[in-house]
Automatic annotation (TrEMBL), chain A:
Name of the protein described by the UniProt record: ABC transporter ATP-binding protein
Source organism: Catenulispora pinistramenti
Domain of life: Bacteria
Record carries keyword Nucleotide-binding: yes
Compartments, as annotated in UniProt: Cell membrane
Domain ABC transporter: 5-230
Automatic annotation (TrEMBL), chain B:
Lineage: Bacteria, Bacillati, Actinomycetota, Actinomycetes, Catenulisporales
Compartments, as annotated in UniProt: Cell membrane; Membrane
Stated name of the protein: Transport permease protein
Membrane-spanning ranges: 56-77, 89-109, 130-162, 174-196, 203-222, 268-287
Organism in which the protein naturally occurs: Catenulispora pinistramenti
UniProt keyword Cytoplasm, yes or no: no
Primary localisation category: membrane
Amino acid sequence: MTTALRVKGLRKNYGDAAALDGVDLDVAAGEIFALLGPNGAGKSTAVEILEGLRSRDGGEVSVLGVDPAAADYRWRARIGVVLQEARDFTMLRVGEAVRQFGAYYPTHRDPDEVIAAVGLTEQTRTLTSRLSGGQRRRLDVALGIVGGPELLFLDEPTTGFDPAARRQFWEMIRSLRTAGTTILLTTHYLDEAEALADRVGVLAKGRLVEVASPERLGGRDHAQAIVTWDEDGRRCEERTAEPTRFIAELSTLFRGEIPGLSVVRPSLEDIYLGLIGSQETGSPEAGPQETAKPEGSAR
Amino acid sequence: MSAMTSGQTVETVGAVTGTGTTDDAGRQRAPWSEVWRIGRVRMRVEVLQLTRNTGLLIYTFALPVVMLLLFGSIFRGKIAGTDATYQQVYATGMIGMCVINGALQNLAYQVATERHTRALKRLRSTPMPAVSYFLGKVASVLAATLAQVAVMLTVGVAVMGLRLPTSPGPWLTFTWVLLLGCTACSLLGIGLSGLIRSENGSAVVWLPIMVLQFISGVFIVFSTLPKPVQEIGAVFPVKWLCQGMRSVFLPDSFKYSEPAGSWEHGRLALVLTAWCVVGLVMCLKTFTWRGRDDG
């Protein structure tokens, strides 16, 4: 498996504060990697260093085999960048903007095809200032992929989307992966990372606290299932490694249907909050998710 | 969806690099053919954006015409000791004003705004060379100035008895003076944009621009300015641009009223070219793609 991106001991300081404090990261070619983290965790700083838009204070970085700090136009032709929300070139129509950006690259994809891929064909002649938030964001992606990048950076691409628009957007990102594009994504939305990413990395206080597939993050796959049900007007809860056996017993107890039965594994969000929570307090055991809950505590 | 395979992209990029030069950091510079090709794309986009900014267009076209009509009706007749009328002199001064407004004021503000809205950061993430971006800006200033001059001269001829040269010689001079003058001032304007730190900070460039207009002989006949002021004005490109325009639109005898007693075309070309070079070096060295509030 070839590596698209390799980072070792990446450091960045703003004044005395370390925004990035020794980040190690490998992303394989063809992978979708999601970088998660609270505001101010250093996500955008990290991504902008990888994009060659920001300098670093230490560590080794190789993106498509090149150090972004010494990157030239040939390297920029191989990456695609979708920055955080921007409202620029408001005087241009969608088609004009995409054609213009395509022309910056030595070779580029057919602008009409790219516009169709992001679902803006009907808006081709619309001024960019007249687009809705979601449409504008899809245009941003069109500008990022028109050069046919090997590696695409997406910085919080679906902020402000309604659920339907977000799902459409995910489909588009998946089709890019199918075509062989490596994607590095930052997001606030855990469901987005879960739906798209092969692996996720959690960045907290300038450090990458864990990297794993969404299913395995924070030992999620080994975590106990939580069975909850109603009994005597109370909500009851049981954590168990054998939910099937436990429910069978409950079922015998209730002689059939168990009132208000639910079985859940900890969501990615639970795991994530546990990870960044333990960063905040400094002790992994002290996270709110780990404290034993008395029976009946509502979830 | 049929995306281009990454292999294709790499091969093609490799093929284009053959003629590029390398800078001190080992980065390969885009070959000039590429800079020029993308520069032409930027020129089209810049001019297109210009034509869609209706509010700015109305102001841009009205300003020199209104100023010419005002000056032309306040100051009348021939300038003492010459064959030139005040209207003629002001018409050439207004060309200088158009370039100052377009290149130094509007352009500096525009580039600062593009920095602020992160348009520049987005461009930076593409293979577009900086020089191509500068080319687009110069072209937009040149296009705006040409259009303004055309409107102003038409009004000048129609209502103020302005006479235009009929031989090709002066028009050739007009072309190279305007080209060099717009290029020099546009590059200065791009450099000046770095002083505008926030969205509402364009006031910092008004004062120097106002002073430059007066010491360059835009509003006042240059030869009537005090000698020290003339000498300061002669350091900057606008004085030379206006002088070149006087050589185009004023009777040849007016050259005896110029400080050197001649039109100084050679020196004029030299000064404006020097400013183009200085402006370009300044832009390449100091130009930043990212705003101050952006980390």
